[in-house]
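quick q for whoever's on today - can somebody do inverse folding on this one?? i tried earlier but teh output was garbage lol. tokens:
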């Protein structure tokens, strides 16, 4: 029987900028300067040890920043993540303007695409998918069976409001642990994905938990992806407004206001210091 060998990735400090020093937070977040490929490779090749437990991966955009202003638990959950990368273009540009070296935006969708680009990289992994609907679950299962026959996975559709039900949450933790999960994909949106992982970090077994929203719906084709030119111009937000104007405007307008207030607070609160 073939034995899976887990290659140990370089220390995260190897991916930091030229100064190789601890960075000051921007928007209260200590961003990692992984690019997309590095983030995907690190989680695929760096297995979490039993004593480390779950490692949280979050890709903040303006909605995350705005939500964190109003929700202390979500703010704590996001900032306690082991890997935080700048997803939203405004977040990325602001972090660069504040002096951080970041190689570029790192979206959850692109990280997932890189992780599943080479089936051999998934050998030995066990993926647990917490998703929004039975249609998404069946779509992921069919897509994986066709493209990744050696990849063990399980899907779960939690009931609405599960994050407020202690018994539901603990039952889900038991299922995640019982499956021997190494990659936990939380696809039920912010803030519930991040809060669930952070709230139960002491009992979730060693794995990487990726809060990647609707990334798999795009990957399997159940949601229409934006054209390449839209992505290059960082106009995905405008594409989503075009698809769902009422819902997206209700989300983006308060998110934009919250982000601008957080950015202003970051600048005014750090006039005397310089980000590293």
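ok took a stab at it. sequence:
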């Amino acid at each position: 029987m073939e034995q899976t060998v887990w290659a140990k990735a370089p220390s995260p400090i190897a991916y930091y900028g030229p100064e190789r020093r601890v960075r000051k937070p921007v928007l209260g977040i200590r961003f990692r300067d992984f690019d997309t490929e590095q983030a995907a490779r690190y989680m695929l090749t760096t297995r979490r040890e039993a004593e480390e437990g779950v490692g949280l991966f979050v890709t903040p955009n303006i909605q995350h920043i705005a939500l964190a202003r109003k929700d202390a638990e979500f703010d704590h959950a996001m900032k306690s993540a082991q890997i935080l990368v700048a997803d939203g273009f405004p977040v990325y540009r602001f972090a660069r303007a504040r002096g951080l070296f970041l190689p570029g935006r790192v979206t959850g969708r692109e990280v997932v695409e890189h992780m599943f680009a080479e089936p051999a990289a998934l050998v030995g992994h066990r993926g647990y998918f917490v998703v929004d609907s039975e249609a998404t679950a069946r779509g992921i299962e069919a897509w994986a069976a066709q493209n990744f026959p050696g990849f063990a996975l399980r899907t779960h559709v939690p009931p609405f409001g599960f994050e407020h039900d202690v018994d539901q949450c603990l039952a889900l933790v038991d299922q995640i642990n019982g499956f021997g999960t190494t990659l936990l994909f939380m696809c039920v949106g912010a803030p519930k994905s991040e809060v669930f992982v952070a709230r139960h970090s002491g009992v979730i077994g060693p794995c990487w938990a990726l809060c990647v929203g609707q990334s798999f719906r795009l990957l399997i084709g159940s949601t229409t992806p934006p054209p390449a030119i839209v992505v290059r111009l960082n106009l995905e937000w405008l594409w989503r407004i075009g698809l769902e104007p009422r819902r997206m405007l209700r989300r983006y307008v308060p998110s934009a206001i919250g982000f601008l207030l957080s950015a202003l607070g970051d600048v005014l609160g750090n006039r005397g210091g310089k980000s590293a």
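fwiw Residues 31-268 form one domain. also The chain has twelve helices and six strands. so keep that in mind when u check it
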